[in-house]
User: Fold this.
Amino acid sequence: MSQEINQKEYLENIKNDLTLDQVFQLLVDLGGEPQTYNNSYIISRTICHNPPGQGSFKLYYYDNTKLFRCYTECNDAFDIFQLILKVKHLSKSGITYWAKGGELKTRPWDLPDALTYILTYYGIEAENQNFSEEQLELPDDKYIAEKLRKQSIKTNKEQSVSLKIYNGAFLKNFPQPRILPWEREGITRESIISHNIRYDPINQGIVIPHYDINNQLIGIRERTLIKENEARGKYRPVIISGQMYNHPLTFNLYNINWSKDNIRNMKKAIVFEGEKSCLLFSSFFGIDNDISVAVCGSNLINYQVEMLKSLGVEEIIIAFDRQYQEYGDKEYFKWEEKLINIYKKYGSFIQIQFILDTDHLLGYKDSPIDKGPEVFLELFNNRKKPR
Ligand SMILES: [Zn+2]
Assistant:
């Protein structure tokens, strides 16, 4: 290729050529558990400042700008090369090399390393150019500001959501063996069968189909049973015969297709974080009493509240995981602030109550239902408004 293309343009061209699917796949492998929206953007866990599989879904990637934006901690926009640097710096992984004198040393990742990584990852042929740190520049503020302006025009339109519907007929080809790790936690066989949970022998994962309120298959997540794969995220969208069954989790509530009639009758809904909590609820209290749903994250958005309101819900009980070591510690207040924000947002038109583990009946990061039905009932019956 011609020498006239400067390094900045070179990086720019690589970024511009990346398809949304390619970026999606990278985020899957980095443990971001991504979801795509309208083929224009991706929402991922904030792997820019959190370990894989953790962090909230506040890292956005926009296809029109080819930029990421982290809406929490980093509060910044950056490109794919910078994302790689952030991930590598966070995990403190370095580049090992032989220094002069025969010493084996490690240095932090730099931009040329990130470029090499991306080229290798996507099998892009490198141009025969020498890159040095000075030549490779990060996009400047003006450039980012311009891109973000374009992007905000686009994302304002994201309110109307139509989820892709999949044909789930193939699901019955996956076996339903006993899932002992889950049974040990208290999930009954009946609950597994009724939720159409299956086993994927090839990837060795538990297949969790997600349905919308009308029982239509909108996505499938898989919980890996292989310890080594957990580093890339415990839950991932499943890929079957090359088709990725991903869906925007935030525009649905897991389990609502099964619990909607009970919710309608009770005018109450319990909102958990993870799918497993719903399975435990119906295991402990019976499918006919199940009024649980799961946000599959740790946030409750307006869209989800509207879904519950459409069922005539008068009370929402937030039963999020205990994300604090001790009641009243620093982490607790951060966690409580999130609950207070939910209360402030919706509390004026719907009754919002919270399950708070003030007496440490649960373990760190436990769901309120993880310690069995008795503990759950005690917490549930003591539910309260935030202070
Ligand atoms: Zn971040």
